[in-house]
Amino acid sequence: MSNLAGKAYGMNVITPMHPSRTWINRLIFMVAQLKPRVLSGLLGLSLIHFARWFMIKRDQWPDLGQGPEQLRHDYMLFCSNFNGTWDQYIDAFADGIPSGLDLFWYSSVKYPQSIPLTPFKSYIVHNQLDTQYYYNATPGSAQRDIKAALRVMPALRELAAQHPDMTPTEFAAAYRAALRKVQTSLGAPGLAPVASNATFEAERNLEPLLQARWG
C-alpha cells in the first residue's frame, strides 16, 4: 500500500458534510465551473496532474452486500495526483487558492479553514485515506518532465529529417543550434529529491522492495 509512484503522489480525502448545507456546496461548484477564473491560482500550479471534489449523498453509497448504509452525513470526496511531497502540495494549495479551499470545504464538519496552515494540515491528515493501488504510467517523470520531452521531440524529428542531406560538419552545427534551443527542456527522470521527513520515510520503506525487484 503506497500513495507514492515514482515522482507522483496520490491523495484521497473524504470529509463528512452537514446535510443541510450540501446544496450550498453544489451551488458553489456550479459557480466555479461557470467562472473558472476563480480557480486561476489552482490552474497555475504545474505540479498538479489532477484534482477533483465531488459529493456523495447519504443514499448514494453502493450496496455491495452489506445492506443499506445508515448515515448521518453526506460526504465530500477529494481526489488528486501531484508531483512533489505531501507538504509541498498542501502548502502550494493553501497559498494558491485559500478562499477557494474554504468554499469547497464550506459544508464539511469541523473544517478549520485553510489559514492558519497547521490546523488545515491536521484536518487533511485526519480525513485522508491511504491509496490501496496507485498506477503511474511514467513514474520517473514529473508533469514538467513530460512537457519538456514534448518540446524536445520536434527538434529531434527536425534533425532526423535534415541528417541525410548534411555533411558531418553541417549536422554538428545543426545539432548544437537545436541543443541551444531546447537545453532548458532537458528533464531529469528518476526519483524525486527528498524534501520532507514523510517522503524520506516512504522512500526508505520502499528501498527493500525496489532492491528485490530491480537489483
Description:
- This protein is 46% helix and 15% strand.
- The two termini are 21 Å apart.
- Strands 1, 2, 3, 4 and 5 form a 5-stranded antiparallel beta sheet that branches.
- Helix 6 (143-162) runs antiparallel to helix 7.
- With 215 residues, the protein is an alpha+beta fold.
- The chain folds into 2 domains: 4-61 and 68-129, Alpha-Beta Plaits (2-Layer Sandwich); 143-185, no CATH class.
- It is elongated, with a radius of gyration of 23 Å.
- The chain is built from 8 helices and 5 strands; from the N terminus they run ββααββαααβααα.
- The mean pLDDT is 82.
Describe the secondary structure blueprint for this structure.
Elements: E1 4-5, E2 8-17, H1 22-34, H2 40-43, E3 48-56, E4 74-83, H3 86-96, H4 98-104, H5 117-127, E5 128-129, H6 143-162, H7 168-182, H8 197-214
Antiparallel strand pairs: 1-2, 2-4, 2-5, 3-4
Helix pairs in contact: 6-7
Q: CATH topology of the largest domain, what is it called?
A: Alpha-Beta Plaits
Helix content: 40-55%
Global shape: elongated
Instruction: Give the end-to-end Cα distance, rounded to a whole number of Å.
Output: 21 Å
CATH class annotation of the largest domain: Alpha Beta
Q: Strand-residue fraction?
A: 15-25%
Largest sheet: 5 strands, antiparallel
Overall strand count? 5
Write the H/E string, N to C: EEHHEEHHHEHHH
CATH architecture of the largest domain: 2-Layer Sandwich
**Which stretches of 5+ consecutive residues score pLDDT under 50?**
none
Total number of helical segments? Answer: 8
* Overall pLDDT score: 82
| Number of spatially distinct domains | 2
